[in-house]
Structures are given as structure tokens and as C-alpha cells.
């Protein structure tokens, strides 16, 4: 046993018998500076949150004020439209505010007169339809009795309709919807008043507005702003002038047709067709022609077909003959560009965008045309759509000539060779 212990002790390395236990290895401490948050990170987070809050606040404010911004845009274009008339009256010594007031009175009188004429047409037709409604019902009941061998009575049908549940529900829903209709009408009147108020201020204080805008710009930019303003006034006024002239021509043409067909309310219907067809783009013509067709149908069904045919033919005449001649000197934009601008304006802003799209595009086109450098076009037939004539005619003719030349150059096999000196 002792020897074994002595042998085991001899296997251990020398110098470790009396040495103390070695401490475990310690890891080096990490740098205390690398564990801290960078000083710029809290500021960046606060700045990002502030920017996001400002974006959300601006987005919310924009959606709340989009109606007001659209009204201001309409008022601005309306002020540009009446600017030539106000400027002429102010040039003759009239105060600008009073001149603007007179122009607005004229526009208001024209609008009220149009509404009164249209209201008289609709009221007369509604009263006539209500008075003739029992007669129409009797005709329908008699036709049903004769066709299907029934014994229906107008009194029984009227009693069953008046005592039905769906009529009560309809009356209740209509009564509850009166408040919504009233609120809609009041909102529309408030929007009209807002547009007229802003347009009056824009037109009456136009010079002051231009001075305030130019006061924050350098002199070079001031000239560009004033030039853009002048172009916008010219193009918007030209658009209103051309549309008004085409509305007058359209109204006179449709009045003659309705007068020949002896359709009632011909003057009011002519005014309706002229204004709606010109100031509601794309679908205005067909929307305006629906009312005269309906009233002509009450006189004679064939008259409605005559009105429809005349509307279609006059629309083509206006698109291809009348409109290019008038807009070439006022708005001067291509019909395809006008149609595309109306579609884009409708997609962006609805009916308001469709109304102001053409003068806006005309203004932008004229403003860009003033700064785009143009060059003289070379006198090339291809510019005018003609192909240059090549020498030698067509390819078929050239091919025939080439074949003839080749055949003339080849020697004929059946022909004897020319005599040589030896043969001689």
C-alpha cells in the first residue's frame, strides 16, 4: 500500500505538491463605452416621430380642407374669366370693385333667368303629367282587361296601393330623407356663396394680389409671374368666349328645329341645350338632348327620333367644323389634348376638374411654348406626309430594266461567232 502511494506520487510533476490551487482564468472586461446608446439616436427618434406627426396632421388637415381648396380653385378661374370685362370697365374710369359687382350682377341675372326658364319647363311638364296620370292608368287597365280577359278597376287598384305596407315605408323613409335633402341644398348654396365671394375678391383686388405676390420674388421672377398671369387671363377668357359663342349657335339651331316641330317650351329648351352641351364636357351634348327628346315624345314619338338625329348630326358638325375654327384663335389646343385633359381632370377632381381642365391645359401649353426654343423645319417632303420620288420609278420598273440589260449583255447561243482573220 505504501509503495503504491509512493509510486503514484512520483508520477506527478515536480513542484506541484505544495503549490496552491490556480485561480480560474478571467475574461477581459468589455469596453464600457461600446455598451452605451449613441447620443444622436434619441434625437433622431424624436425627430422622426415629430416628422411623422406633422405628416399625419397635414394629411388630416388637407382632407378636411379639400372642399375649401376646390372652391378657391374654382373662384380663381372664375375671376380669370371675368378679368377682361372688369379690366375694360376699370380702364374707362370705373372703380374696380364696382365694375366687378356689375359683372357679377349680370352673371347672377343670367343664371337666375336660366333656372326660371328651366323651372317653368319642368313645372309645366310635371303638372301636365299629374293631370293626365289617371287617363294613362285607365288606358293601361283597359289594355290589360282586353288582352288578358281580366276585370280590373282603377278604384280597386288605387285602394290596394294606398293601403299597402310598402307605400307607408316609402313615405316614412321620404319624410326622414327630407332633412338630408335640405342639408344638401343648404350646403350647395353655401359652396356657391363661397365661390362667388372668393372670386369677387380675386377680381376686385387683382392688382393688389399681384403686387403682394411679386413683392416676395426677385425682379426676374416677377416678370415671369406677371407673364403667366396674363397668359392665364387670355386663355381662360378665350375659353369662356368660345364656349359662349358655340352655346349661342347651338341654342339657335336647336330652337329652329323645335320651332319647326312645334314642340312646346322651345326657347327654354334651346337655352338648356346650348349651355349644358358646351359647359359639361364629353357627355353634355347627349345629356342636354335628353330633355328635348322627352318633351318631343309627348307630342309625337317620331319627333323624338328627329330630335335625336339632329343632335347626333349637329354634334359631328360642331366637333369637326365649328369647334376647330373657334378654338384655334382662342384656346388653340388639339382636340385629342382637350379630350385627354378632360378625362384627367375628371379622374382627379370630378366635375370641377372637367370644367377647368381645358383652360388650365391651354394656359400651361402657352406658358411652356413661350420658353421652349423652336427651330425652322427643313423643307423635306416627308415632313408634309409625302414620300420623295426616286429616280427610275418603282422597284418593279427598275427590276424589269435590270433584266433587260442583263439579257442584252449575254451572247446568243444560236448566233455564229464573228469571223476571224484566219478564216478570211
What are the segments in which pLDDT stays under 50 over at least 5 consecutive residues?
1-19
Q: Biggest sheet: strands, sense, closure?
A: none
Helix and strand composition category: mainly alpha
Which geometry do the CA atoms define? extended
Helix content: over 70%
Rg computed from alpha carbons, rounded to a whole number of angstroms: 44 Å
Distance between the termini: 149 Å
What report would you give on this structure?
This protein has 424 residues and is an all-alpha fold. Helix content is 76%, strand content 0%. Helix 3 crosses helix 8 and helix 7 packs across helix 12.
List keywords for this structure.
about 425 residues; mainly alpha; extended
Lay out the secondary structure:
Blueprint lengths: L1 H10 L28 H52 L4 H53 L5 H9 L2 H40 L1 H9 L4 H42 L5 H14 L4 H16 L1 H27 L7 H15 L1 H19 L25 H15 L15
Helix pairs in contact: 2-3, 2-5, 2-7, 3-5, 3-8, 7-8, 7-10, 7-12, 8-9, 9-10, 11-12
In summary, what is this structure?
This protein is mostly helical and 424 residues long. The chain has 13 helices and no strands. The N terminus is likely disordered.
